[in-house]
Specification:
The chain is built from twelve helices and seven strands. With 265 residues, it is α/β, with parallel strands linked by helices. The protein has two domains: 183 residues, HAD superfamily/HAD-like (Rossmann fold), CATH 3.40.50; 75 residues, Putative phosphatase, domain 2 (DNA polymerase, domain 1, Orthogonal Bundle). A seven-stranded mixed β-sheet has the order 1-7-6-5-2-3-4, sandwiched between helices. The protein is globular.
């Protein structure tokens, strides 16, 4: 299933910048969610999966700030501690997040099925492969060797702590394009499973492709997706597609594999 908002000239694409969790690895973007829920639980606040997923795509420090800004979480914090959450609280949770995230990344760095083959196809078309992420370099350095050992290795990677601001700002995309030596930005495609990523792609003047089935929006493991009745899954993905199109995506696909199929038509 695929929805196109804007006609795309696939032949004009010189580079593709892929997100990591939920787009190329970690089907369902499960690793970050588990850690966000854990760090707030340690503070006495049980956050929902929806709350943990809402700011996904942003730099992880900004993600925690966004969660603290949610009225229910802010009110719960104040009821527990007697004051509104402060920046020092954000930074303390962020340090805990980094430790816990590093511990579980090794088991959540498996490329999504078909991704290594799709990347090989893009390269054969002369397309350069880059990556951007809300992870810091410290975190991505854990992911890269595990993903590479299983067949996925982009030409360049840019992390949230290597630019002045992460998504939805465009700087990750500009930096990745610079490292790849590709311009103008209208010939760069970004592929992401978050609304923040789509906003960042549009702000950079890129072709924007949203991933609906393997990523944060659906938020399920591959085995759990297979348990959903096809009609229910179709309806859910249709709703996700509409959200991404409203966010400005030029194209919505279920997976990177489906995107590669479209390049071949």
């Amino acid at each position: 299933m695929m929805r196109v908002e804007t006609p795309i000239d696939f032949a004009s694409v010189k580079a593709i910048l892929f997100d990591w969790a939920g787009t190329t690895i970690d089907f369902g973007s499960l690793a970050p969610v588990a850690v966000f829920k854990s760090i707030f639980s340690h503070c006495g606040i049980e956050v929902t999966e929806a709350e943990a997923r809402e700011p996904m795509g942003q730099a992880k420090l900004d993600h925690i700030r966004a969660m603290f800004a949610m009225p229910r979480i802010a009110m719960k914090w104040k009821s527990l501690y007697g004051f509104d959450p402060k920046e020092s609280d954000v930074l303390q949770l962020y340090e805990t997040f980094l430790v816990l995230q590093k511990q579980i990344l090794s088991t959540h760095s498996t490329p999504i099925s078909g991704v290594p083959q799709a990347i090989e196809f893009f390269r054969k078309q002369g397309i350069k492969i880059g990556s951007t992420t809300g992870y810091t370099r410290e975190l991505l350095d854990v992911v890269i060797p595990f993903a590479a050992a299983q067949g996925y290795s982009p030409d360049v990677s840019v992390c949230s702590d290597e630019v002045i601001a992460g998504r939805p700002a465009p700087w990750l995309n500009y930096r990745a394009a610079e490292l790849l030596g590709v311009y103008p930005m209208k010939n760069v495609m970004i592929v992401d499973d978050s609304v923040a990523g789509i906003h960042a792609g549009r702000s950079a003047g890129c072709i924007t492709v949203a991933v609906s089935k393997t990523g944060n929006a659906l938020g399920l493991s591959e085995s759990d997706v297979e348990k959903i009745h096809p009609s229910e899954l179709h309806a859910t993905l249709l709703g996700i597609e509409q959200e991404f199109l409203r966010a400005g995506a030029d194209l919505v696909v279920e997976s990177v594999v489906e995107l590669a199929d479209l390049f071949q038509k």
